[in-house]
Hints:
Strand content of chain B: 15-25%
Structural class of chain A: alpha/beta
CATH architecture of the largest domain in chain A: 3-Layer(aba) Sandwich
CATH class of the largest domain in chain A: Alpha Beta
Shape of chain B: globular
Radius of gyration of chain B: 33 Å
Oligomer: heterodimer
Largest sheet of chain A: 6 strands, mixed
Number of helices of chain B: 19
Strand content of chain A: 15-25%
Distance between the termini of chain A: 51 Å
CATH class of the largest domain in chain B: Alpha Beta
Number of strands of chain B: 16
Amino acid sequence: MAxxxxxxxxxxxxxxxxxxVVVDAAQRRRDPTFAIPVRxxxxxxxxxxxxxxxxxxxKQVRSxxxxxxxxxxxxxxxVADALCELQRADLTTSLRExxxxxxxxxxxSHENTFDAQDxxxxxxxxxxxxxxxxxxxxxxxxxxxxxxxxxxxxxDDGDQVNCARLGKxxxxxxxxxxxxxxxxxxxxxxxxxxxxxxxxxxxxxEDKFWRRYNCVLLTGNGQPPRGVRRLARRLHEEYGLxxxxxxDNDPWGYYTYSVIKQGSINLAFESQRxxxxxxKFIGLSSADPEAYGLPRNVGIKLNDKDIARARELLSxxxxxxxxxxxxxxxxxxxxxxxxxDALANKDFQYLTKRYLPRKLKEKxxxx
Amino acid sequence: xPSKTNARSRASKRAAKRKAxxxxxxxxxxxxxxxxxxLAPSKRAAPPKAAAxxxxxxxxxxxxxxxxxxxxxxxxxxxxxEISVSEFFTKNRHLLGFDNPRKALLTCVKEAVDxxxxxxEEAGILPDVVIKVEVAANGEAAPPASQATRxxxxxxxxxxxxxxxxxxxxxxKLLYGSKFHRLRQSRGQQGIGISAAGMYGQLTTGKxxxxxxxxxxxxxxxxxxxxxxxxxxxxxxxxxxxxxWEAPRGTQVTLEVEGRYQKGRASVDEYVExxxxxxxxxxxxxxxxxxESKAYRRTFEQLPAxxxxxxxxxxxxxxxxxxxxxxxxxxxxLSGFLSADFSRVSPNVADGICxxxxxxxxxxxxxxxxxxxxxxxxxxxxxxxxxPPTNCLSPIGEPAILSGLYQQIKGEFYTAVSRPxxxxxxxxxxxxxxxAYGRGPEQAPPAQAKKAVPLAEGESHDGDDELARVIRxxxxxxxxxxxxACAITKAALDTTWRHYxxxxxxxxxxxxxxxxxxxxxxxxxxxxSESKEAIADYDEIHKEINLALRECGRRLGAFLRRRxxxxxxxxxxxxxxxxxxxxxxxxxxLKGGRLPTTKLKEQLQRMALKLTGGDKTDQLxxxxxxxxxxxxxxxxxxxxxxxxxxxxxVPEKA
Lengths: 367, 654
């Protein structure tokens, strides 16, 4: 094993605790059991005061001597073992690598420990919530999916990164942006604009929108990954920058915004570190097509899935505010959704030259 | 023939309509199309030639200036003449199952074999049939069977033989036979089959049908070469003589036809195999055009009970038929006619029918026509009449089906169900179903050997995505074409197999290594066409098939559950043993290799043993010797042996 002199980290200790559960139970002739917080809508509450989704107290039991759970129990211990190995070697890795690392054929059988990655991914989330350790602390990273440009000076692995001098491609946001890995040296921007779509971020970056309006442009190419959310949160927290979110006008866009603002249901416990309760929804609003004269024919008909999802959103407590209910109901009433790209119908640079400037001037956003 | 003229003018009207509809598509304004449409009906009276000028409909104006050449009724009458059945079928041979060479070859074999089996069974002889399909070389070197286009089919049976004077009409006259005019369960129904096969041969190769038949060892064997005169639908004898023949009794038919020999689905080989499943009392030798000949032993030494002929049931009759029967009857009173010419009509019931129809029971049947016949018909439908007798049916029987499936299909579980007789449109019928499930113990070991390699992502253990095969029979004849049009397939599709532990996706057949066998026995099987490929989907039939399949499914479900139970107990024990190792190793690594692993392992193993019940589980997993789980008419095959009553005379497979 790793160096004996090194002191185990807090996370490592927590992981070793998994082994202790098994050893203690065996000694007391009890069924080894983990209590894992339930990661579902039924076990989250919206804390209106803090503006965050918080995880409830309900836990599910995973015990070894239960035919239905035995395999998952065994897999959980295997994943814990792999994560502990990462801690000791001080490496970071991806979800997929963990899957490969823990996959092998069980001795004297033809059964694999894991058959597919979707068996190991939820176990990592289980361990995150059970051990109350962030994924970054477990040294598991996601893809580098996300870019940033703007008047921002970062230090990454000792390299200076000036996000104002990175052309229109910008800096690719790493999956882990904790202060130990990435330091923010200077930021002179006035606000952060988080764009859902990479294509529209490209438009803004190409038009140097950030220079004229002095902002940091961020994108996560869809549902923003943890690195992007965490970076936005740090800019918001450490530099007091307001965060505006620009998404498509559809239920999925609304949800993307809500994840940025108050955290996701699945990993509600991370809201504390990730959520930006003061983030504002700048567009595309269901009122915009009328306000900005978007023709009806650039809309897309809501399909059954969209409608079902929108109805679900209406029932979430964090969308209970009246303006939001109106916003969603207006979309349902029109029966249409609009992509950000649809703004190009008016002009290729409509987003940069007309839409955002007017939005910012009129302070036309939802909270 | 007014009806024919009508048909023709209807066709021309359709053509006009088509053109009218096509016009706007072609870019012509809609306004123009509308008057054309309205014009069409008025043209009905005009002769067909004028009604549809070639491409004329696209012209903007109807041709008024040109004088329309008229045809007088006399001229038309000169053109109208009778069409012989043979001529009709020459042109419409697809109706009889000769639409493509591959299917034609099968149809020819099928018709000859059906006739042979019907004859043997009616005469009470256990059938012994030889089917020989060979490539007809025609003087040149014979091409390989897969390339050949001409085949000689010879079917020989040990049946009663045919008397000399009947040979030509049976084989060379359409709609001639013994089976059409009676209600009796048999393979053939119309008397078209074999003569149509002969006609097809004559049409494609020019060769006559060759028949050798002998009625007893003392009688001479007659040799005939016959062709059909398609104009008159009469046999033409090319040659007849007495010859020496080795067989003491029987018939041999030789046809030379254009065809294509291809193995696989709906092939002659498949037909032979399926025939054997439903007819285990037949000894059959099959000599295919290539490859080894196959001899199928007789595995069921009992001839099926000879079906009895019955009178039609009043509910199954239509007005026209009733009128004809009224004219043809030999009885002098209406009540006598009703009670004698129909089944299940007693003199009492007959009087009741007459009374409610307002007719005298003593009326002469010939005098009942028009309005009177119609009210008689209505009265019959309104009267409660007992269901037709069902002793006229001869089902295969559960033991024989079981035996047939067991012999021909490899599996782990077999079951068979015979439904009680039921009635559709006055025709009695019986549905029988059978099921063979699994890959058979012989095939299991290689599957396990394959599993020895750990699986990669996306690989699955076994190809369980294969769908069940439905084999369909009507009066013991396998149906190989048009599965989707058949009531049997439809019923198999809408049976909820998931209730019995078998996967089934929406609107599909159940998935799994399974053969579903369904047989319909009836005095009159309602086929969807003359080529007898699919059974019409009557509600009564559909329901009976459903019920039979559900019973099969229930038994299969019971078998699967039992197997699953034993399997899961076994797994339960293994799971913990397997995983303990993994868990202990991981914990040891987590603890930095400082764990007393053997001690931890022992502790966990002791708990596992206690939880899975130790010796008690052994009893559960082991056989308790109760046979196939109390399932009637079922066979379960395990690597250790066969459970369940094998029908007498069926040898256990090695």
